[in-house]
Design goal:
By secondary structure, the protein is an all-beta fold. The chain is about 0% helix and about 45% strand. It is built from no helices and 21 strands. It has strands at about 5, 10-15, 20, 25, 30-35, 40, 45-50, 55, 60-65, 70, 75-85, 85-90, 95-100, 105-110, 115, 125, 130, 135-140, 145, 155, 165. Strands 2, 3, 5, 6, 8, 9, 11, 13, 15, 16, 18 and 20 form a 12-stranded parallel β-sheet that branches. Strands 10-12-14-17 form a 4-stranded parallel β-sheet, with no helix packed on it. The chain has a 3-stranded parallel β-sheet with strand order 1-4-7, with no helix packed on it.
Length: about 170
């Protein structure tokens, strides 16, 4: 697809991997876009407006690869695995259920939004740049996990189990 827009309410279920060469917009009405275990690749903005939502399940990876683009929106965006292969700024709160990867020379700016991390162990990987700004990072694992070695603006531990810092912890 070049641009992909889903709207009007209802549930859309991906029947296979999806490649969107530009923008993906999920909007208007309660529109549910379920990736299941399929992969999604977006080279533009990925926008989800309320009350719509995007979900993915185990083994699904969403890769975003645009330059100076936005990710999220007023709706709910939950990714199993999220790979940043471009430069993105959060436009809404997002949840990553397993792990977030930021590729070398690529970046994710959290702005003022919340990044919820549900995985255990090392949940942020890669050698790219994560800009914290005035955001919140929330750890939500049901089995505990590792708190990444970051300079947090706001830190929330909303999961259960033991959460230990990987090294130095600055809030």
């Amino acid at each position: 697809y070049n641009n992909l827009g889903l709207s009007g309410g209802g549930t859309f279920i991906a029947a296979g991997n999806i490649i969107c060469n530009n923008d993906l917009t999920i909007s208007t009405g309660t529109t549910n876009f379920s990736l299941g275990s399929n992969n999604l690749s977006v080279a533009g903005n990925l926008t989800v407006t309320s009350p719509s939502f995007l979900t993915s399940s185990a083994s699904s990876t969403t890769t975003v690869s645009g330059t100076a683009k936005t990710l999220g929106g007023s709706g709910s965006a939950t990714f199993y695995r999220l790979k940043i292969s471009g430069t993105y700024t959060l436009a809404g709160n997002i949840t990553v259920s397993d792990y977030l990867t930021i590729d070398n020379t690529k970046s994710l700016d959290l702005s003022t939004k919340t990044l919820s991390l549900g995985g255990s162990g090392d949940v942020i990987t890669g050698t790219g740049t994560l800009t914290i700004s005035t955001s919140t990072i929330s750890y939500t694992s049901s089995v505990g996990g590792t708190l990444e070695d970051l300079a947090y603006y706001k830190l929330s531990i909303a999961g259960v189990g033991t959460f230990l810092p990987s090294n130095n912890l600055t809030v």
